[in-house]
């Protein structure tokens, strides 16, 4: 079916979308995304009305885009256009932002970071993060940055990791864990030490554990291992046991 759509003209793909039985429509949308031909993406652009379509169909489209193994710049362009300047259901908006992060990350891994669509995608996420008022919104944009895993966003993630409330700190550290070890610099490690050892303020247990995991998973120094083990003595048994297992795994 994908091969057929790749050789089809836009009007044929559009006709298929419009005439597909309701129960088959999500499958056809997903397949049109997978085809990623100029015609199939143009047909999807004409067919999908984000102000009218049911949320389930829009989310199916966005998930299909996010999980595409080798997305194109045209696919990211389509997703951005559908999200741009529209009043969307919160679930659709959130799924869309996370999908943008995923597409940006995959395109950069294909050495396509210089595409205009990628730059637009990154700015969309960063602008949304700057303008987010609710904690839940901030978390979504941080997750998107984690999916994108662009080194230039690490300072932004560190700011949120150290200064945010628990949910935001956890999301920012989770985003940092998506980065390859080569990007976990001494600056990142210093911030994780401050969080784990609570140098600036108190953090919830989950935040401290996440910070410790970054330290232990990225070529830990002997002093980091010693300090984490010493700190574990002051923690409850379950948490201390978890850290001890992480240290053993790291050493092995």
UniProtKB/TrEMBL annotation:
Q: Which InterPro entries match?
A: Lipovitellin_superhlx_dom (IPR011030), MTTP (IPR039988), Vitellogenin_N (IPR001747)
Descriptive protein name: MTP protein
A Pfam family this protein belongs to?
Vitellogenin_N
| Domain named Vitellogenin: residues | 1-229
Annotated Gene Ontology cellular component terms: basolateral plasma membrane; endoplasmic reticulum; Golgi apparatus
**UniProt gene name:** Mttp_0
Any one Gene Ontology BP term: lipoprotein metabolic process
* Lineage top rank: taxon: Eukaryota
UniProt lineage: Eukaryota, Metazoa, Chordata, Craniata, Vertebrata
